[in-house]
Amino acid sequence: MSLGKAYGVESHVLSPAETKALYPLMNVDDLYGTLYVPQDGTMDPAGTCTALSRAAAARGAQVIENCPVSGIRVRTDDFGVRRVAAVETEHGAIQTPCVVNCAGVWASAVGRMAGVKVPLVAMHHAYVVTERIEGIQNMPNVRDHDASVYLRLQGDALSVGGYETNPIFWEEVSDKFAFGLFDLDWDVFSPHIEGAINRVPVLEKTGVKSTVCGPESFTPDHKPLMGEAPELRGFYLGCGFNSAGMMLGGGCGQELAHWIVQGRPEKDMYSYDIRRFHPLLTDHRHWIRERSHESYAKNYSVVFPHDEPLAGRNMRTDPLHEELLAQGCVFQERQGWERPGWFTPQGTAPVLQYDYYGAYGNQAHGDHAYGRLLADEYTFDFPPHHDVIKKECLACRGAAAVFNMSYFGKFYLVGLDARKAADWLFSADVSRPPGSTVYTCMLNHRGGTESDLTVSRLAPSPQASALAPAFEGEGYYLAVGGAVAQHNWAHISTVLQDQKFRCQLIDGSEDLGMISIQGPASRAILQEVLDADLSNEAFPFSTHKLVRAAGHLVRAVRLSFVGELGWELHVPRPACVPVYQAVMTAGAKHGLVNAGYRAIDSLSIEKGYRHWHADLRPDDSPLEAGLAFTCKLKSAIPFLGREALEKQRAEGLRRRLLCFTVDERVPMFGLEAIWRNGQVVGHIRRADFGFAIDKTLAYGYIRDPSGGPVSLDFVKSGDYTLERMGVTYPARAHLKSPFDPDNKRVKGFY
């Protein structure tokens, strides 16, 4: 409801009595309340598609039916890039540089014609239509999330369906099944009938007029697959809509059109972009099946802020996984990687093999440590282990913490045109002397932020090592967030191909680990482990060196993602455990602790550091996000997105990212509405608790309701509140984080 206010969607939270008055046939005895959206409705899919195809035909499009596609012809250009050349059919070929795969459960088969992996599974999905129900006319549609069932108005009847824990997989997708239906399996479907009868009891005495059970495609994260396939230029996806095609089709279709015509969508579509998945996952049938099942079964589950999947786990582990598991690490999963979430003092919490929630003859797991700790997260209050994460954060602020960030993407950009490519790709000037490291963004042609990352300039080397490839010309080492590494790889590759730069992009992510030691004591600890002078004079902030750690050659980078004095150690995979153990031994007398990404989230938001795809998205510019310092606008060097930024700067910013602090001790997680002087001006993108300042912090973009630029005076003259679940809390707006605003700590001044 609170988010709806930011988007202009009217909604109301109703009491059981108000719900009964609105929907007299509903059983409200077991309800706390309901969310009512007056403008919700239904549409006729066949009529909608007919109207769209007629309108397209009137504008010159051709719709050719009964014309099976038999192949996708591919050509390789002079730079070795695979591109679409034609669609082959039983009636001849159509020459085209562009194909959109909208084939639903058959999308994987069409992908195979082109050498493109399409990560989806086919399942039976069903609903039933009841006989006429007196008094049901003009009632709202109903979703009962606890019963995982929906009741959709269909004239003077209801159609009833839902998401069960034991859906039937369509194991062998037949290409002869056009417009076919399956027989409904009542053993699988009956829980939906029971849930529907509980919610609308009159259904117990109402007959079933018809059943519909057809094939639907489902994806590992229950989100569509869209955008240009990384394996083949000109091959776009518009499939895997998880039975929500009519709901999502309008907006997705519009953005897909922008994608094809302009090269990128106008809105942030990362969550739907096929490039969110690493190639190791898109080709892993076991992972796709497990994750798609869990996403299906939990489709109507309440989305808690720190929930984690149980399916498809332990796919990608780094060298420190077992070491940290033994020390109580509670892992999170991001794009197949297991990464440290936080450390429990209550023993080990391994992730067990997926049990399919007891379906298909599997034995459901009983009580186990990871399941218990995850269940503690099923709250919109602070979880029971809030104080454990607090200790990790305050140890980092007061002494030191070690973070395993091995799941980060680690790429090399090298070659004769590498400097030209770097100048064009990166918004900051990264062509500094070897040994320098620069925080920068990558933009699209509209000035939106496709990534934020660090880029380290390398010295040329004729000989390859575990820490750098051999190369001629220029070289750069890129470190990017692991969850979005594939998106970065695909964006850079696309730009290199489009600009025809003569350089290589090399993936070193699996070959290197990354250990970050942060905090006031980090220098004293690492001085015992590294064979280098770590003083400010010898090793300044934002520089890197090859050094030895416990006898192993590593790349040390003086950077911080938490706002403290610290170094990242980029370590060859075989050396990760001995280097980590040496750091922990040296840090014991200094109060060094293990810490995870829950601590990073808190520490980074407290310092005001941005997270890509939370604070920064492809439709947010660095100027709006307060990152103008990452843009080389004072130089004459052209870069991707520069013209859009110059235009935006000249016209004034229509949105601006602000930091808010809330004095009342209340958790926030993102999506809360931002009120200014009694008007909604935006919503929160990211929020967390800052333990050093002992307050909730939240970041969100605000706009001027009048449509004008958001000036600094506009920001400073407002009175702000943040609305969380219908309750507003007074908030203070800041243009920069209130924690260490002068950046003294990262420079080693305490």
Automatic annotation (TrEMBL):
Its cofactor is FAD. Residues 320-634 form the GCVT N-terminal domain. Residues 655-739 form the Aminomethyltransferase C-terminal domain. GO terms for cellular component: mitochondrial matrix. It is found in: Mitochondrion matrix. Residues 5-259 form the FAD dependent oxidoreductase domain. Residues 263-317 form the FAD dependent oxidoreductase central domain. One of its GO terms (molecular function) is sarcosine dehydrogenase activity. The keyword Oxidoreductase applies. Its EC number is 1.5.8.3. Pathway: Amine and polyamine degradation; sarcosine degradation; formaldehyde and glycine from sarcosine: step 1/1. It is an enzyme of class 1 (oxidoreductase). InterPro entries: FAD-dep_OxRdtase (IPR006076), FAD/NAD-bd_sf (IPR036188), FAO_M (IPR032503), GcvT/YgfZ/DmdA (IPR028896), GcvT/YgfZ_C (IPR029043), GcvT_C (IPR013977), GCVT_N (IPR006222), TrmE/GcvT-like (IPR027266). Keywords: Acetylation, FAD, Flavoprotein, Mitochondrion, Oxidoreductase, Phosphoprotein, Transit peptide. SUPFAM superfamilies: Aminomethyltransferase beta-barrel domain (SSF101790), FAD-linked reductases, C-terminal domain (SSF54373), FAD/NAD(P)-binding domain (SSF51905), Folate-binding domain (SSF103025). It catalyses: (6S)-5,6,7,8-tetrahydrofolyl-(gamma-L-Glu)(n) + sarcosine + oxidized [electron-transfer flavoprotein] + H(+) = (6R)-5,10-methylenetetrahydrofolyl-(gamma-L-Glu)(n) + reduced [electron-transfer flavoprotein] + glycine. Belongs to the GcvT family. Catalyzes the last step of the oxidative degradation of choline to glycine. Converts sarcosine into glycine. This is Sarcosine dehydrogenase, mitochondrial.
